[in-house]
Amino acid sequence: MIASCSPGAGSTEERPTALPTVAQIDPAVLAADDDCDPTRMSKEQFAAIDDGEISYDDYLPGFQRMATCMEADGYTLVHEGENNEIVDTSIPDAAFPSYQECYAREFVEVDKTWQIYRENFGPPAHALSECLTERGEKPALTYLEKYQQFAALGLDPQKDCWDVKLRG
C-alpha cells in the first residue's frame, strides 16, 4: 500500500519495485485523514475511491469536476500543464474559498492518493530503481528510500541517473 510504513532496518520482507498501474488506498490511513470527510465528498469522488484504487482515469475526471465546480462559482481554474501526470494549476486569490470547497467535494482524496503514488512510482522513482538495479542494488520501495540509497552509494541522482534515463 502506498500509505503504509516501510519495513524497518533488518527486515527480510520482500518489497515490490515494479511500476504499478494504480495507486492503492489504505482504508486505515483514509479513516485517520483529518481532511477526509465523506459527507463533503461528491458521489463521484466517493465512487472513485470506493474500490480502493486510483488510476489516471480517475484522476483527470476528478480534476475536471473540481474545475467545473469552480466555474459554477464564477472562477476559472487555470490549467498550467502537467508534470509526472499531476496537473499544475493556479487560481486568483479571490477564488480560494471556492477552490477549498470544490477541492474537498470533488478531488481531495483522489488527488492526494494519486500524488503520493506518482511520487513513489512515477518516472523519476522508476528511473532510480533501474539505476540501482544496474549497480547491483535491490531498490527500496519509496522514492525517498531510493534517493537515499543512491546518495549512500556516493552518486548524484540527477547526473548519474535522471540525466541518462529521463533526458537521454
Describe what this molecule looks like in 3D.
This protein has 168 residues and is mainly alpha-helical. Helices cover 52% and strands 9% of the residues. It is built from eight helices and four strands, in the order βααβαββααααα. It has helices at residues 27-32, 43-50, 56-72, 96-106, 108-121, 123-134, 143-152, 157-165, and strands at residues 23-24, 53-54, 78-83, 86-90. The strands form two sheets. Strands 1-2 form a two-stranded antiparallel ribbon. It has a two-stranded antiparallel sheet with strand order 3-4. A hairpin with a 2-residue loop joins strand 3 (78-83) and strand 4 (86-90). The longest helix has 17 residues, at 56-72. The two termini are 31 Å apart.
What tags apply to this protein structure?
168 residues, mainly alpha, two-stranded antiparallel sheet, two-stranded antiparallel ribbon, 8 helices, 4 strands, elongated
Write the layout of secondary structure elements.
Elements lengths: L22 E2 L2 H6 L10 H8 L2 E2 L1 H17 L5 E6 L2 E5 L5 H11 L1 H14 L1 H12 L8 H10 L4 H9 L3
Antiparallel strand pairs: 1-2, 3-4
Helix pairs in contact: 3-4, 5-6, 6-7, 6-8
Q: Outline of this structure?
A:
The protein is built from eight helices and four strands, in the order βααβαββααααα.
Q: Report the count of strand segments.
A: 4
**Rough outline:** elongated
Number of helices: 8
Relative strand content: 5-15%
Strand order of the largest sheet: 1-2
* Secondary structure: helix percent: 40-55%
Largest sheet: 2 strands, antiparallel
Q: What integer value in Å does the Rg equal?
A: 18 Å
* Element string (H = helix, E = strand): EHHEHEEHHHHH
What do the pLDDT scores average to?
80
Contiguous runs where pLDDT drops below 50 for at least 5 residues? 1-19
Structural class: mainly alpha
Q: Please give the alpha-carbon distance between the first and last residues.
A: 31 Å
